[in-house]
């Protein structure tokens, strides 16, 4: 029951990036001029964490690698287990990242609903913006998923 009602996870995961110190200060997880990587590395040592599971984008995995390097320099071994997950599907050589197809399908369903509204007022201009950084994969896959939903 707790898992269904809590955001993130019971162990305190978040979408905060260690590379964005100002954001970490705003959400009150970083104080003063502390280096976010040093704070995270110190906490991993205090908690005796020796395996870090990273589920996320290339920036999440890069941050984990930086933590691993800093801890290795201190003689503390940290094993990283990475699982690529991004809606942009832009993590080569992975063929399909977790979350990518789900995001495309959800975008297609959303667009189908917008088109249904448009039929009630054909003078409406629709701009359907899709997230996707520079990859463009999500926009293309959303369009493809939408075309699959439209009767021929």
TrEMBL record:
It catalyses: beta-D-fructose 6-phosphate + diphosphate = beta-D-fructose 1,6-bisphosphate + phosphate + H(+). Keywords: Cytoplasm, Glycolysis, Kinase, Magnesium, Metal-binding, Transferase. One of its GO terms (cellular component) is cytosol. It comes from the Eukaryota. GO terms for biological process: fructose 6-phosphate metabolic process; response to glucose. Its cofactor is Mg(2+). Transmembrane segments: none annotated. GO terms for molecular function: 6-phosphofructokinase activity; diphosphate-fructose-6-phosphate 1-phosphotransferase activity; metal ion binding. It holds the Pfam family PFK. Residues 4-145 form the Phosphofructokinase domain. Catalyzes the phosphorylation of D-fructose 6-phosphate, the first committing step of glycolysis. Uses inorganic phosphate (PPi) as phosphoryl donor instead of ATP like common ATP-dependent phosphofructokinases (ATP-PFKs), which renders the reaction reversible, and can thus function both in glycolysis and gluconeogenesis. Consistently, PPi-PFK can replace the enzymes of both the forward (ATP-PFK) and reverse (fructose-bisphosphatase (FBPase)) reactions. This is Phosphofructokinase domain-containing protein.
